[in-house]
Design a protein that fits this description.
This is DUF1320 domain-containing protein. The chain is an all-alpha fold and about 140 residues long. The protein has six helices and no strands.
């Protein structure tokens, strides 16, 4: 898996993780896969998400790992009774989404593998458009 037990220690304690995941490895695994897909939805147009999530150990981008943990914890906490601890999870989730939107808009440029075309050139995920100045024919 992309996320390990050690990665969660940065954002949540071990006993709190057991409570949030409801001591179910299946619940945790589903939340992690949902978090990866959510991140990929933002990054896929420009970055190679298969290579990003296939990386292991120190090869991984630490910020993406942290935000993946935050998003997974947010999804796990949503299923808890009375939404226990949801305030901090929601805050960290919104921060992760804000960062992903910044990356998607091109305002933040992380060190991630880019998508390459057949020639090995980076694929641009942006469109350039424009039009001529509007003409008014009022005589």
């Amino acid at each position: 898996m992309f996320i390990t037990d050690e990665d969660y220690k940065v954002v949540i304690g071990e006993s709190a993780l057991k409570v949030v995941s409801q001591v179910s490895s299946e619940n945790r695994s589903n939340a992690e896969m949902e978090a990866q897909e959510e991140i990929a939805g933002y990054l896929r147009p420009k970055y190679d998400c298969a290579a990003l999530f296939a990386a292991e150990g120190d090869e991984r981008n630490r910020l993406v790992v942290m935000y993946c943990c935050d998003i997974a914890l947010y999804h796990m906490a949503a299923s808890l009774p009375q939404k226990m601890g949801m305030e901090i999870r929601k805050e960290r989730y919104e921060r992760a989404v804000k960062w992903l939107e910044g990356v998607q808009a091109g305002k933040i440029v992380p060190d991630l593998p880019v998508v390459l075309d057949e020639d090995g050139e980076p694929v641009s995920g942006t469109f350039i458009y424009g039009c001529q100045k509007k003409q008014r024919y009022n005589w």
